[in-house]
Amino acid sequence: HIQAKKFQIFNSGHPLPNNVSVLAAKSIMKFLEQRKKEDIVIFLVSGGGSSLISLPAGISLNEKIRVNNLLLKSGATIQEFNCIRKHLSKIKGGMMVENLKCQAVALVMSDVENNDLSSISSGCTYYDKTTFQNSLKIIKKYNLRKKIPKRVLKRLNDGYVGKIKDTPKKPRIKNQIIATNKDCLKSMAKKAKQLGYKPKITTISGNVITESQKIIQLLPKKKNSCLIFGGETTVNVTGKGKGGRNQELVLRILKNSLKIKNDVVISSIGTDGIDGNTKDAGAIIEKSSISNNVINHYLKNNDSNSFFKKYGGLIKTGYTHTNLLDIGVLLN
Question: How far is residue 253 CA from its own chain's centroid?
């Protein structure tokens, strides 16, 4: 913790915003409005900012939380998620710096695939490539129209017909990426070589079922080989269990590994130290004689956390205070 009077610290909500998230956003905007022309502002931006700072536009915080909750469980990608967030906000998509009077630079830690600056922290210091129309298409894609609060739909429709100004479409300040998921994977590969493994690197993105199948297929057959992967999967939550995308990914890879002869160790964690609705970062497990039926029982209810509590393998790191997507490894 930073112990200094010149630092103001807000313990905001994540993955869902809370009242402190709103207070944090208002305080940042007030600070920026007070800057003089000769000042220089340095922003340090990381993933999670979409929830940690929140200033809803035309809707209440509770309505914003409801939308976030629906999107979290829908299987929407982070880009789709943030597209809607930006069009329900007064600060995201570059609006935070749109009227800044002084020079500024943003140093950004990337938690999104392809290091898309418009998606990291919902592009609060960058600009927005998406539109109100895109937001409405995403809601239709995931069949959320009947579940979304009416005022949210009204705002998006008003924006679509031009009643509300869209987000900025060009950058106001310089944004520089300083750390990425690839940096993590390179460090893992270096360590793997030191331990006598032959590493292979791949990225994951999209539906957890598809990606778990891809990963097991990519595992090299030779002994002392390892597959290192990074990125972020999406989980369509239909059950009421506890878990997260990393724990569910490990469990699904375990299920797929029952079809191959190799003995494998499987692990995946979130670099921020928190996976889904649990206090664990992820899981690690060795291929075992656990039956397919047992695994399916837990997967059906999205209850991977209960599986690993019973059979062992939960990884607990606590908050890491950084966010560079997820990382994982398969050891052969």
Answer: 21
Name the maximum alpha-carbon separation found in the chain: 67
Domains by residue range for the chain, with CATH = 19-179 (3.40.50.10180), 181-331 (3.40.1480.10)
Helix ranges restricted to H, 15-129: 19-33, 49-52, 61-74, 78-86
Distance CA 203, CA 227 (A): 10
**Which of 233, 244, 113 lies closest to 180 in space, CA to CA?**
113
Q: pTM of the full predicted structure?
A: 0.86
**pLDDT tens, position by position, 14-24:** 888 999 999 99
Structure token pair of residue 40 = 């220089």
DSSP letters for 135-146: HHHHHHHTT-TT
Q: Please write the tens of the pLDDT for every residue from 51-84.
A: 999 999 999 999 999 999 999 889 898 889 999 9
| Sign of the alpha-carbon dihedral angle for 196, 233, 299, 213 | negative
Residues linked to residue 284 through DSSP beta bridges, in sequence order? 267
The answer to whether 25 and 95 have CB atoms below 8 angstroms apart is: no
Helix (H) or strand (E) holding 186: helix 181-194
**With contact defined as beta carbons under 8 Å apart, do 225 and 328 qualify?**
no
Structure tokens at 273: 């130290």
Mean pLDDT of the chain: 95
Q: Encode burial over 292-309: b for 16+ CB neighbours within 10 A, e otherwise.
A: eeebeebbebbbbbbbbe
Residue 312 CB contacts under 8 Å (≥ 6 apart), including other chains:
285
Nearest alpha-carbon partner for 66 in 83, 88, 47: 88
Spatial distance between the Cα atoms of 151 and 170, rounded to a whole number of angstroms: 28
CB 205 within 8 A of CB 233: yes
In 3D space, the residue among 115, 97, 113 whose CA is nearest the CA of residue 105 turns out to be 97
Residues β-bridged to residue 329: 228, 267
Q: Which two tokens stand for residue 92?
A: 């995201």
